[in-house]
Amino acid sequence: MQTPERRRLTYSQKAFAGTRFSDHIAMLNVFQQWEDARSSGPASEERFCEIKMVSMPTLRVTWEAKNQLISLITQAGFPEESMQMQNYNVSGPNDKLDVIIALMCMGFYPNVCYPSSKRKVNNVFFFFNFLSSW
Fold this sequence. Notes:
Layout: H1 4-7, H2 11-15, H3 23-38, H4 42-52, H5 56-75, H6 95-108, E1 113-117, E2 120-123, H7 124-132
Antiparallel strand pairs: 1-2
Helix pairs in contact: 3-4
């Protein structure tokens, strides 16, 4: 069993999220840095995981899942060029990263809000409040 001190994130692990304060962005950043280290060889990959205290098996499973998704998406007709790795600045402004965050929000919370007219958006909480006031 791990001690509470062992379960806390190190400063270098927290730094993966940059100024976004997001676990998902931290994972994206870890994965990109790991892929860079991996391209330099197995020793570099192991050293990265050891220094940053991240799980190599988890990153490898993530890499396999990524490649499966890329294969499925290209089979569905999307161009391979659109699957190229992108670099994101997690510590400053980055329009591409803002789009990624918006897409993740849409994927994780698909019914949070919906348009009701040209300039009005209702959210699920408004709907529930409306129903509970009956």
